[in-house]
Amino acid sequence: MTQIIYDGSFEGWLTAVFEIYEYKLKDVVFAKQESSNSLLFSNIHFVTNDSTKANRVLNGLEQRLSTNGCKNIYFAFLSELDKIEEILFRFVQYAFSSPINIEGDLSRSEVLNVKKAAHLTGKESHRMKAFVRFKLTKDDLYYAIVEPDCDVLPLIEQHFKNRYADQRWLIYDSKRRYGIYYNLENVSTVEMQFESNSSSFLAEINNESEEFFQNLWRNYFSSVNIESRKNTKLHIKHMPKRYWKNLIEKIPNLNKR
User: Fold this and answer.
1) Which is more confident, 253 or 45?
2) What is the pTM of this model?
3) Distance of CA 163 to the CA centre of its chain
4) Interhelix angle 67-78/153-163, nearest 10 degrees
5) Rounded to an integer, what distance in angstroms lies between the CA atom of residue 118 and that of residue 66?
């Protein structure tokens, strides 16, 4: 068995796929950054990102799959589901070994599981576009804290760049400890240690008028809610509770404490 140690990026994974074929590695498992102690007797292969190798794998897949099929590979990778790297590698092996497009062969577990993982990421991306709530800091930066199940920031950055083109903003993923920052021209990835759970820290950086506007939004949300038509089960289906801690309308009105 061979452990493939890569940096966790999509380019790194594609490079690893190339090198598995290049060095004829067998029985591979993937690990991010460091080897797994559970595989003490395995060989270890370290991967250094190589855009040329990564692009050769992508180009090969583009010749065998539809545009949507290639997109599903990327979406499935971002799902971060357990063993997704191995599932995707088996999918790639099948795609390269078949003389025909394999996307519709849902009898194969790797094809079905990639499709399911891609759908999960797409759904999470769609929800994030609706559930991001910005707050204004003292230096006129709009920031939002999110904690999605999948790594969807790369998928939503264009949406927010188009929608908030005239504002500086930062969307921070507290689960993965990185964010995307828009400076009125470009979107860049930033890594930072952000005290997202510290109410005192957030109060310190917020603009003085931010509390007023947050309460205004809560009052609006409350006023449009018709109690007689309340359907908690349906509400939770469309707005799962795991998102609530970062939704302004779900945090108690600060003036009512």
Assistant:
1) 45
2) 0.80
3) 19
4) 110
5) 14
